[in-house]
Amino acid sequence: MVFAFAVAIGILLALGKWYPGSGAEQVDWRPTRSYEDEIRLELEDIDQMIEAQNERRRASGRPEISEDEIRSQVEEEERWRKTESERYRQEGDGV
Asked: Which residues lie below 8 Å from residue 67, measured CB to CB, with a gap of 6+?
């Protein structure tokens, strides 16, 4: 009984390993959207998020923000994090 189960599992594993093609090809699977569509949707999402943020900023009387300003803020924060990380590592080495 155990031997038959082990043989059946071995056969299934061998089929998975040496059968030509992939599982996606066997079931004729295709992505629902192309990579170009995914990129386009991501860019649209970014525009929508910036517009929603600007709508809230206008409602509270603050100036609008552009994508370039957001990118520069992110770059500044990344530089700060890198600096702090390096400082922390140096302090850890000296202790």
From this structure: 46, 50
Mean pLDDT, the chain, integer: 89
Phi/psi at 64 (5° precision):
-70, 160
Q: Are 54 and 65 in contact (CB under 8 A)?
A: yes
pLDDT tens digits for 14-58? 887 887 877 777 777 777 888 899 999 999 999 999 999 999 999
Q: Count of residues for the chain?
A: 95
Amino acid at site 94: G
Contact yes or no for 67/46 (Cβ under 8 A): yes
Burial of 2 (0-12, 13-18, 19+ CB in 10 A): exposed
Q: How many Å apart are CA 71 and CA 46, to the nearest integer?
A: 12
Do 52 and 60 touch, CB atoms closer than 8 A?
Answer: no
Mean pLDDT over 74-79 rounds to 97
